[in-house]
Write a structure and sequence with these properties.
Elements (H helix, E strand, L loop, with lengths): L1 H14 L3 H6 L3 H18 L7 H18 L5 H11 L2 H5 L5 H30 L6 H27 L7 H15 L11 H7 L9 H7 L5 H36 L2
Helix pairs in contact: 1-7, 3-4, 4-7, 4-11, 5-8, 7-8, 8-11, 8-12
């Protein structure tokens, strides 16, 4: 366990090298929020049903926090695909480390650093819009975002594992994550989509990556809904963890047998 904690700390230190690029990514946040607010405000004026433009802006504000926090984890499939195709994965398999946990420690370190900064900046921007986040919602939101990042890691890693048998998993990843963006609440909150889409989405882990943490951060879930959705995240984390363990053992066994 100590070596994975050391990896976590070292990743935090190394992440400082790229802090300028990271800070520059915040420039677009106020512009996107203003455009989002004006769009939904105009739409609500011309719509018979009332649309709370402020609530939608709050949702997208925290969605951006998640996207910035998750950005390092979005590279997992590519990095694993690269390691397997180049044959360098064999060097990890002969070391006394669990490679999936090692990679997870790296990504979680980057996630925590990105999320802390993103939350500070986004909360300040929210205050400028007249929105103040509740400490309770912030706490539950952080928990949900940690689980969301873990789910995203598992999805990315599982797709990357397919490189043991398939060569073009990047295209597969793009297809799967295009679906995630459509059904996962990144284009439109899931609860604003037709019921059939909501029903389909909740048969998968997709809503628990972006939609659930963003809604919890924004205080748009009741306590019961919050607990139920976090429980859903934990369930999918366990399910995907079991699947990854099975696929990883088969794939690495074949790789070691073939001598990379």
């Amino acid at each position: 366990m100590q070596k994975y904690l050391s990896t976590f700390v070292l990743s935090l230190k190394n992440a400082k090298i790229y802090k300028l690029d990271f800070y520059l990514s915040f420039i677009s946040i106020p512009i996107e929020l203003i455009i989002t607010f004006l769009f939904w405000k105009i739409l609500s004026i011309g719509n018979d049903q009332s649309i709370d433009a402020g609530a939608i802006v709050a949702y997208f504000l925290f969605l951006q926090v998640l996207q910035l926090g998750y950005s390092p984890t979005m590279l997992v499939t590519f990095e694993l695909w690269n390691e397997i195709n180049n044959g360098t994965i064999i060097t990890w398999l002969v070391r006394p480390v669990n490679y999936p946990i090692y990679m997870l420690a790296q990504k979680m370190a980057h996630f925590f650093m990105n999320t802390v900064v993103a939350l500070i900046v986004s909360i300040l921007i929210g205050v400028a819009f007249g929105y103040v986040i509740s400490p309770v919602h912030l706490l539950y939101g952080i928990i949900a975002s940690i689980f969301g990042n873990l789910l995203l890691f598992e999805l990315q890693f599982l797709i990357g594992c397919l490189t043991f048998w398939l060569k073009k998993v990047i295209a597969l990843r793009d297809v799967i994550f295009n679906i995630l963006f459509i059904l996962g609440g990144t284009l439109l909150p899931i609860d604003m989509t037709p019921k059939i889409i909501q029903d389909i989405a909740y048969f998968t882990p997709i809503p628990f990556v972006y939609f659930t943490p963003a809604k919890i951060y924004a205080g748009q879930f009741s306590l019961e809904q919050t607990v139920r959705n976090i429980a859903g995240q934990l369930l999918w984390i366990v399910i995907l963890g079991v699947v990854i363990n099975f696929v990883w053992k088969i794939g690495t066994s074949d790789k070691i047998t073939q001598g990379a």
